[in-house]
TrEMBL record:
This is GtrA family protein. It is a multi-pass membrane protein. Keywords: Membrane, Transmembrane, Transmembrane helix. The chain crosses the membrane at residues 42-61, 73-96, 108-125. Residues 11-131 form the GtrA/DPMS transmembrane domain. It comes from Streptomyces salinarius.
Protein backbone atom coordinates (compact mmCIF):
# COMPACT_ATOMS: atom_id res chain seq x y z
CA UNK A 1 0.00 0.00 0.00
CA UNK A 2 2.82 2.41 0.86
CA UNK A 3 4.62 1.65 -2.40
CA UNK A 4 1.46 2.41 -4.39
CA UNK A 5 0.94 5.68 -2.53
CA UNK A 6 4.58 6.63 -3.10
CA UNK A 7 4.23 5.86 -6.81
CA UNK A 8 1.07 7.95 -7.07
CA UNK A 9 2.65 10.88 -5.22
CA UNK A 10 5.78 10.70 -7.37
CA UNK A 11 3.71 10.59 -10.54
CA UNK A 12 1.61 13.53 -9.36
CA UNK A 13 4.69 15.55 -8.41
CA UNK A 14 6.32 14.99 -11.79
CA UNK A 15 3.02 15.84 -13.47
CA UNK A 16 2.56 19.07 -11.50
CA UNK A 17 6.07 20.21 -12.34
CA UNK A 18 5.49 19.33 -16.00
CA UNK A 19 2.20 21.24 -15.95
CA UNK A 20 3.94 24.30 -14.50
CA UNK A 21 6.62 24.17 -17.21
CA UNK A 22 3.95 23.70 -19.91
CA UNK A 23 1.88 26.62 -18.64
CA UNK A 24 4.83 28.98 -18.10
CA UNK A 25 6.37 28.23 -21.49
CA UNK A 26 3.01 28.52 -23.27
CA UNK A 27 2.40 31.88 -21.61
CA UNK A 28 5.85 33.16 -22.62
CA UNK A 29 5.64 31.84 -26.16
CA UNK A 30 2.14 33.18 -26.63
CA UNK A 31 2.79 36.57 -25.02
CA UNK A 32 6.29 38.08 -25.33
CA UNK A 33 7.46 35.72 -28.10
CA UNK A 34 4.29 36.33 -30.10
CA UNK A 35 3.87 32.81 -31.46
CA UNK A 36 0.49 31.57 -32.66
CA UNK A 37 -1.44 29.46 -30.13
CA UNK A 38 -0.97 26.07 -31.81
CA UNK A 39 2.78 26.44 -32.24
CA UNK A 40 3.15 27.74 -28.69
CA UNK A 41 1.09 24.86 -27.31
CA UNK A 42 2.95 22.24 -29.34
CA UNK A 43 6.31 23.51 -28.06
CA UNK A 44 5.13 23.81 -24.46
CA UNK A 45 3.59 20.30 -24.66
CA UNK A 46 6.91 18.80 -25.78
CA UNK A 47 8.75 20.65 -22.99
CA UNK A 48 6.19 19.53 -20.40
CA UNK A 49 6.36 15.92 -21.57
CA UNK A 50 10.15 16.03 -21.39
CA UNK A 51 10.03 17.27 -17.80
CA UNK A 52 7.43 14.62 -16.87
CA UNK A 53 9.51 11.86 -18.47
CA UNK A 54 12.65 12.96 -16.64
CA UNK A 55 10.75 13.27 -13.36
CA UNK A 56 9.27 9.81 -13.67
CA UNK A 57 12.46 8.15 -14.93
CA UNK A 58 14.74 9.77 -12.35
CA UNK A 59 12.24 9.94 -9.49
CA UNK A 60 9.05 7.91 -9.43
CA UNK A 61 10.33 4.81 -11.26
CA UNK A 62 14.06 5.04 -10.57
CA UNK A 63 13.96 1.74 -8.68
CA UNK A 64 13.26 -0.03 -11.98
CA UNK A 65 16.57 1.08 -13.47
CA UNK A 66 17.32 3.65 -16.12
CA UNK A 67 15.27 3.20 -19.32
CA UNK A 68 17.37 2.26 -22.34
CA UNK A 69 16.95 3.49 -25.90
CA UNK A 70 14.32 5.67 -27.52
CA UNK A 71 11.41 3.25 -27.12
CA UNK A 72 10.42 4.20 -23.54
CA UNK A 73 10.60 7.90 -24.36
CA UNK A 74 8.57 7.48 -27.57
CA UNK A 75 5.93 5.41 -25.78
CA UNK A 76 5.79 7.99 -22.97
CA UNK A 77 5.16 10.78 -25.49
CA UNK A 78 2.49 8.65 -27.21
CA UNK A 79 0.75 7.98 -23.89
CA UNK A 80 0.80 11.71 -23.09
CA UNK A 81 -0.53 12.56 -26.54
CA UNK A 82 -3.37 10.08 -25.94
CA UNK A 83 -4.08 11.78 -22.60
CA UNK A 84 -4.21 15.15 -24.36
CA UNK A 85 -6.56 13.66 -26.97
CA UNK A 86 -8.90 12.49 -24.18
CA UNK A 87 -9.00 16.05 -22.84
CA UNK A 88 -9.78 17.44 -26.29
CA UNK A 89 -12.43 14.77 -26.85
CA UNK A 90 -14.19 15.67 -23.59
CA UNK A 91 -14.16 19.32 -24.60
CA UNK A 92 -15.43 18.55 -28.11
CA UNK A 93 -18.27 16.33 -26.86
CA UNK A 94 -19.37 18.93 -24.33
CA UNK A 95 -19.02 21.97 -26.57
CA UNK A 96 -20.15 20.64 -29.94
CA UNK A 97 -22.08 17.49 -29.07
CA UNK A 98 -24.00 18.65 -26.02
CA UNK A 99 -24.11 22.35 -26.92
CA UNK A 100 -22.59 23.49 -23.61
CA UNK A 101 -20.72 26.49 -25.01
CA UNK A 102 -20.04 28.73 -22.00
CA UNK A 103 -16.49 29.29 -20.80
CA UNK A 104 -17.37 27.56 -17.52
CA UNK A 105 -18.66 24.47 -19.35
CA UNK A 106 -15.51 24.39 -21.51
CA UNK A 107 -13.33 24.65 -18.41
CA UNK A 108 -15.22 21.91 -16.56
CA UNK A 109 -15.21 19.53 -19.51
CA UNK A 110 -11.65 20.18 -20.75
CA UNK A 111 -9.69 21.10 -17.64
CA UNK A 112 -11.87 19.19 -15.18
CA UNK A 113 -13.36 15.98 -16.51
CA UNK A 114 -10.90 15.73 -19.38
CA UNK A 115 -7.90 16.30 -17.13
CA UNK A 116 -9.04 13.61 -14.67
CA UNK A 117 -9.67 11.02 -17.41
CA UNK A 118 -6.48 11.98 -19.26
CA UNK A 119 -4.44 11.69 -16.07
CA UNK A 120 -5.86 8.24 -15.32
CA UNK A 121 -4.87 7.16 -18.84
CA UNK A 122 -1.41 8.70 -18.44
CA UNK A 123 -0.84 6.98 -15.09
CA UNK A 124 -1.94 3.60 -16.42
CA UNK A 125 0.08 3.98 -19.62
CA UNK A 126 3.19 5.21 -17.85
CA UNK A 127 3.28 2.38 -15.32
CA UNK A 128 2.09 -0.34 -17.72
CA UNK A 129 3.74 0.54 -21.04
CA UNK A 130 6.75 2.70 -20.20
CA UNK A 131 8.13 1.83 -16.75
CA UNK A 132 7.03 -1.78 -16.45
CA UNK A 133 7.80 -3.57 -13.18
CA UNK A 134 9.05 -6.60 -15.14
CA UNK A 135 11.79 -4.45 -16.71
CA UNK A 136 13.96 -4.47 -13.60
CA UNK A 137 17.60 -5.18 -14.33
CA UNK A 138 18.58 -8.75 -13.51
CA UNK A 139 21.23 -7.73 -11.00
CA UNK A 140 18.54 -6.12 -8.86
CA UNK A 141 16.27 -9.15 -8.67
CA UNK A 142 18.65 -12.06 -8.80
CA UNK A 143 21.59 -13.15 -6.68
CA UNK A 144 25.03 -14.28 -7.85
CA UNK A 145 23.78 -17.86 -8.26
CA UNK A 146 20.74 -17.04 -10.38
CA UNK A 147 18.16 -17.51 -7.63
CA UNK A 148 15.88 -14.89 -6.19
CA UNK A 149 18.37 -14.27 -3.41
CA UNK A 150 19.05 -15.77 -0.06
CA UNK A 151 21.79 -18.12 1.00
CA UNK A 152 20.61 -21.43 -0.43
CA UNK A 153 23.52 -23.84 -0.59
CA UNK A 154 25.78 -21.57 1.41
CA UNK A 155 28.51 -23.35 3.39
CA UNK A 156 27.60 -21.15 6.38
CA UNK A 157 24.17 -22.66 6.63
Amino acid sequence: MVAGRRELLGFASAGLLAYAVDLALFTCLRGPAGLDPLTAKALSFVAGCSVAYAGNALGTYRHLGRPRGLRPCAVFFAVNAAGAAVQLLCLAVSHYGLGLTSQRADTVSGAGVGMVLGTILRFWGTRTLVFRPGDEPEHRTRSWNGTSGGRVGSWTG
